[in-house]
Design a protein that fits this description.
Helix content: 40-55%
Number of helices: 7
CATH superfamily of the largest domain: Acyl-CoA dehydrogenase/oxidase, N-terminal domain
Strand content: 5-15%
Shape: globular
CATH topology of the largest domain: Butyryl-Coa Dehydrogenase, subunit A, domain 1
Number of strands: 5
Radius of gyration: 19 Å
Distance between the termini: 54 Å
Number of domains: 2
Oligomer: single chain
Largest sheet: 3 strands, antiparallel
Length: 200
């Protein structure tokens, strides 16, 4: 396997590294004692700059406005952007959105892709990931108590007793809590680091 870096990729990485050094690292000191929602306007301006430079969403398909880089080049991108906590977010390849985008792209219906995939890739919405169960290791999705049963064409989740998910105070997290509440009839005990959801 050839691991050499193409000239084009070297140029892309150079542009990303320069952007991180000149535009993102200086933001770190300014935002040290601010919440994510307070620094979001500045980050959104940086995201617009990245889109104008055509460096947006390096992992995502070109048909949706991404760069569609292969895995080896994606690894180099993550290395270049990992020099700041803002790198992945500003370039549109942050978790959990990147993984959720891949799942929707591969397995979603056309309706789901239009409703969720395009806005996720464009950075217009955020997604949420909730997997951890209190009594089991959330790092291993094979070891989960939650199951689902078929009801006609639908799968109905049979929720385990409790969930713990990591959320912040952003609009996206508030929307995620509302969605969980609406869909799962859960109550939320708000905490800045972790939130506990109990099934009613």
């Amino acid at each position: 396997m050839d691991f050499s870096v193409s000239e084009k990729m070297q140029t892309i990485l150079g542009m990303m590294k320069e952007f991180v050094q000149k535009e993102l690292i200086p933001l770190e000191a300014e935002t040290l004692n601010k919440s994510f929602s307070e620094i979001l306007p500045a980050l959104e301006e940086k995201r617009k700059m990245v889109k104008q430079m055509e460096l947006w969403s390096p992992l995502m398909p070109k048909e949706y406005g991404g760069m569609e880089l292969p895995l080896t080049e994606s690894a180099l991108v993550f290395e270049a952007l990992g020099g700041t906590p803002f790198g992945l977010f500003v370039f549109g390849c942050q978790a959990p959105d990147a993984g959720n985008i891949e799942i929707i792209h591969q397995y979603g219906t056309e309706e789901q892709k239009e409703k969720w995939l395009r806005p996720l890739i464009n950075g217009e919405i955020r997604s949420c990931f909730s997997m951890t169960e209190v009594d089991l290791p959330g790092s291993n999705p094979v070891m989960m108590d939650t199951t689902a049963e078929k009801d006609g064409d639908d799968l109905v989740p049979l929720w385990a007793a409790r969930r713990v998910v990591q959320l912040d105070n952003s609009e996206e997290s508030v929307a995620c809590r509302r969605w969980l509440y609406d869909r799962c009839r859960v109550t939320c005990i708000h905490h800045s680091e972790f939130e506990e959801f109990k099934i009613i």
